[in-house]
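dumping this here so i dont lose it again. seq + smiles for magnesium ion
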Amino acid sequence: MQLRKENILIVDDDINILELLQRHLQSWKYHTYKAVSVKEAVQILRDTNIDLLITDLKMPEIDGTELIKFVSEHYPNLPKLVVTGYPSIQDSLNAIKSGVADYLTKPFTKNELKEAIDKCLDRIENLSGYAFAKAETKKDTAYGEIIGISEKINDVIQIIERVKDNKATIFIKGESGTGKELVARAIHYQGKFSRAPFIAVNCGGIPENLLEAELFGYTKGAFTGAEKNRDGFFQAASGGTIFLDEIGNASKAVQTRLLRVLQEKEVVKVGAQKADKIDVRIIAATNSNLKEMIKKDSFREDLFYRLTVVEIEVAPLRERKEDIPLLVDKFLFKYGVEYKDRFIKISPEAMAVLKRYEWPGNIRELENVVQRAVIMSDKCIEIEHLPHNLKFNIDFPESELQPLKVIEKKYIQKVLNATNNNKTRAAEILGITRKTLRQKLES
Ligand SMILES: Nc1ncnc2c1ncn2[C@@H]1O[C@H](COP(=O)(O)OP(=O)(O)OP(=O)(O)O)[C@@H](O)[C@H]1O
Ligand SMILES: [Mg+2]
């Protein structure tokens, strides 16, 4: 069966209607996606390339009109066909106002459905460059779970593309909350070993004496309590990826074993004599300064060089502020649906505050702020829903704060201008002696 090229998403809380629509659509060889709620529909829109949306209006939780508004905003070129039971005039008006392409009343015949779909899709064919634009937007704003359009994020994605299909060791550095783990997961799940395990180990979260046994496994009798042979995370990750988070917290003993893994591609269990070959990609991450640790002799330099074959630096959010609106959008959607069963918006003023803030806690902090604001607000996030420390930044954006010397110089200049460069008068106004004024001018 030759499928048509269009993907159609059908949304209805009534399973019978969904299946009827799907039967019809499949008989015309369209590829269909089904959703029984707006929540599911939005997820599918995000994960796939949909060419036409067919939706009911009256649905529990989030209403179909909300979905139409959402689609009009986020996928302006996507045609929408509303299929509804008894449209009230108000419903119809609202739907048209919020940009519906077409309207079909239940019950409808198969022919009526076909005509409506053709009409919607024809219109799209006539929009030149549509397919191209659609593919571009998808690609440009998200890569797996990673959202961003900034050059810094693009650079990260370029590297991921290069490394995802080979097993080179990768080192990810960046401040706390910048998305290091997200990058590690993207490398694994976008690559060709994605079916094999991805195992994340927080080296700072496991007690030092246990970490060795957890990572490399142990043999029976290796220590009290070791009642039988056990595999570690390295053996469990076989064929896939092990993500060693907070690598700076690994003890010297663990570091020495790791070095052997990297050099020989083999693991020796705690208490064992012989080594086992392993086939695992290692991704390490840290937000501590390993170079400093090397100087203080708490991190092995030889291990450092083995780990940093490929380095990925995830920039702090303040260096890629253009990504803020996209990230806010993602979190608004996530928490709006989770807490309020609807899409929450954000006022331009509140967004301006978010863009101005420096985000020392990076994306994790942004996510927390949006989460809290969604809880505090009803429909739209306003400045009042943001934490105080962000609001203080409104009056005194840090970039505008200047050293006293600079302000003093400007003010002296102003007084001199106002007094026609009369130094005696200027000194009087400034409340200093002529001599002090002269000194300040000289310096
Ligand atoms: N580019 C991004 N797009 C979408 N979500 C992101 C992005 N970067 C980070 N996040 C989200 O921000 C949160 C923090 O990310 P992550 O845990 O990967 O940071 P991290 O650098 O490992 O932080 P830490 O050093 O504190 O462990 C996660 O919920 C993650 O999903
Ligand atoms: Mg992390």
